Amino acid sequence: HAIHLKDYQPPEFLIDRVELHFDLDPDRTSVESRLELRRNPAATRGDGSLRLHGEQLELETVEIDGNPLTGSEYVLDPESLTLHRVPDRFSLLTRVRIHPSLNTALEGLYQSGDMLCTQCEAEGFRRITYFLDRPDVMARYTTTLVADRARFPVLLSNGNLIEECRLEDGRHLARWEDPFPKPSYLFALIAGDLRAIEDRFTTASGRAVDLKIFVEPHNLDKCDHAMRSLKKAMRWDEERFGREYDLDVFMIVAVSHFNMGAMENKGLNVFNDKYVLARPDTATDADFDGIESVIAHEYFHNWTGNRITCRDWFQLSLKEGFTVYRDQEFSADVGSRGVKRIADVRLLRAHQFAEDAGPMAHPVRPDSYIEINNFYTATVYQKGAEVVRMQANLLGPDAFRQATDLYFERHDGQAVTTEDFVRCMEDASGRDLSQFRRWYAQAGTPELTMQGDYDPAAGVYRLSVRQFTPPTPGQPEKRPFHVPLAIGLLGDDGEDLPLRLEGDSQAPAAGTRVLELKAEEETFRFVGLDSRPVPSLLRGFPAPVKLRFDYGDRDLLFLMAHDSDGFNRWDAAQTLMQRLLLALVRDPDHGVLDAFFDAFREALLDAEGDRALLAEVLTLPSEGYLADQMDLVDVDGIHRARAGLERAIGGRLRADLLAVYRANAAEGCGYVFTPEEVGRRAIRNLALHYLMQSPDDETLGLCREQFAAGDNMTDVMAALRLLADHGGAEGAEALECFYRRWSRESLVVDKWFAVQASSPREDALEQVQRLLSHPDFSLRNPNRVRSLVGVFSVANQVRFHAADGGGYRFLADRILELDPLNPQIASRLLKSMIRWRRFDRTRQALMCDELRRILDAEELSKDVYEVASKALESD
Ligand code: ARG
Ligand code: ZN
């Protein structure tokens, strides 16, 4: 039952116009659809019949050109409606019934709290009406919504509002028309008792756009940051990509039950409320950041996704990779570029590299899938963004802008492929990207092994580079990639040296040089060097690869202190800490050199530096990331080593940390979300974190005070976490007090669950078990499930992977409970158990038992089936 890219066929029919009429009721909604269909002149084969997608629909009527069909004139099965012998051009009317309040999968039309909303990507529209539910069928929609006026005063859909009126029996009607052809996955409707904050944006060419953010009434005071973010994003897209908004109104709706982050429906973006709602006292800096980038991401989709969409779901990265690249660049421009790059690479290494190394590894453009919802992955999104970034860097800013202009012009209104995108890059720049295309087709993380040697007599530094990409499922052998390398060489004084390659005609400037690796192995010879340089490799992370280079600790300390590239200063620190931690895992008695603490102190006290960057530099690699560096994961050893080193830092540098904590106190103007202030809070809370690893009365006092007096959620949450992990009556009291204060703010309650789920305390699993029966816990709210079950299994390695298998059993039980309700969320949770091969035999067996137990369940969803069966497949 897998679907393959190579089997793609154009649709046999096209739909030009769609008229939808909804009679909305949570328990029983009627959907009437009128489609104008015609045979696709470009279709290649077929028997002339029309097969429409449809799932969980109760069919009431089918008419062709006004003539009702009898039951013998069509064929119904659970996934489709087939009509034999249809005219070349005709109008099809269907009427179906659906049941939003019973829809727990949150795909199609469903109920969230008191409102009705939709989620159609990827294949949810077929749960609303019979349709050609595939992205290469683009149609113009008119949507009429009828509902009870008291219960659902606000009725929204895509495009512009063209009619509104009152009906009998307290009902009312709204009619929306979307002038742009779109695929069905971009359809949306909303009905609810909502309030909006409104603003206005004038586009570069002078079009006035009404901006509206709709929320439930009690959330109206948490929309300002989202609105500011939206306006920034709209301006940025004009300036950086020449993209203007194209409708008279742009609407965002915040929904509390949502499977993913947000959805870019044309003119009507629907959001997980986590990515809209923020007030300084309810949301952390990380939340403010997330809102800014997700609002931008969905807005940017209007061009990269909506105006130009995907031919089929194998092309998902065409819109997602490019749009993530765009939102990353936006965040870098409006915030701090260096810190943004570090955060993005941290995420890529933690999730995408892990995915590439496991049984679900797939190319940026997958070859096949069983359930497309399983492929909204770090590979398609984050690695896809890196693949666009590499092309932007290979072309340079001017040619890249010409290439994206060409893409928007050439493909506007079309459903296209990643191949079409690359061809625009080539056509606009004249570059040959034929080898580069392998980044879309081959899975796996390339490993670059580099070696440097210096010949003092000749003044030559030779850098040899070998690339190797490990096998992934279905791809035993890989061909070499085209890899951009950004390299610098540091002299004794820490300054960048001029990089002259043998054979260069002109004298080069000092700084970074981009080399291009194409062969499996290549050597670069730098000439004119009077002493051994320290190489700074892969500056700014120019490609999604792993680097092996045999740095001495002293070289890493040198890079950490001097590299002109901020990213590589951070990376040198990470490599150093990772090395030290892995040595401590192998041998708990391995000493920690004074030089380490000295370097740490020196960085900590660097008053000039960017504080957000500093906080990144001084954060140890996570337990999960350390695990990825080991052939056989030592769960407890990693935890012991990392916790031990944090304790040592807190003890040895107590005075300096206290000084940093005090020096970075707020200056009294209240919470502001600026890069400087975010950095200040980050370094201050990091100092408190280290201090609290070996707490005394003074540090405990500071923590208590910050918890009680903090005027923003960033500081309060940091203190709460430290108190809760510290434990005892005090920890319990802090948790209790926090809950009482915030029990009516659902997103804050999520944080309260998450703090407990991620706690390294030995009784974490018992606590998580207890929280399952907390009145606020519900399997029906994805944010709540993620905050308890997701956080425990992803962000609490030491307790989730406990050797007695309790964590695995707990997770499998939840997955089996969830699968019948919400397969997408169940399948996501399963992903933390599929890389069982990296663990010892005991844990391997325990995880496999749970995977088998899951596979044995009756009526498993495709979503969970695909992940569990691939996890158990022998290679
Ligand atoms: N297109 C949305 C976004 O990235 C995500 C939709 C995810 N859909 C899904 N079925 N997982 O902005
Ligand atoms: Zn997206």
Automatic annotation (TrEMBL):
Reaction(s) catalyzed by this protein? Release of an N-terminal amino acid, Xaa-|-Yaa- from a peptide, amide or arylamide. Xaa is preferably Ala, but may be most amino acids including Pro (slow action). When a terminal hydrophobic residue is followed by a prolyl residue, the two may be released as an intact Xaa-Pro dipeptide
Q: Which InterPro entries match?
A: Aminopeptidase_N-like_N, Aminopeptidase_N-like_N_sf, PepN_Ig-like_sf, Peptidase_M1, Peptidase_M1_dom, Peptidase_M1_pepN, Peptidase_M1_pepN_C, Peptidase_M1_pepN_C_sf
Residue ranges annotated for the Peptidase M1 alanyl aminopeptidase Ig-like fold domain, each copy included: 444-549
Q: Where is the Peptidase M1 membrane alanine aminopeptidase domain?
A: 226-439
User: EC?
Assistant: 3.4.11.2
* Chain ranges of the Aminopeptidase N-like N-terminal domain: 30-186
Give the family per the record. Belongs to the peptidase M1 family.
Indicate yes or no for the key word Kinase: no
Cofactor names: Zn(2+)
State the Gene Ontology BP annotations.
proteolysis
Whose protein is this, by species? Imhoffiella purpurea
Put simply, this protein is called Aminopeptidase N
User: Domain Peptidase M1 alanyl aminopeptidase C-terminal: where?
Assistant: 553-873
One MF annotation (Gene Ontology) recorded for this entry: metallopeptidase activity
Please provide the record's keywords in A-Z order: Aminopeptidase, Hydrolase, Metal-binding, Metalloprotease, Protease, Zinc
Entries under NCBIfam families matching the protein? pepN_proteo
Q: What does this protein do?
A: Aminopeptidase N is involved in the degradation of intracellular peptides generated by protein breakdown during normal growth as well as in response to nutrient starvation.
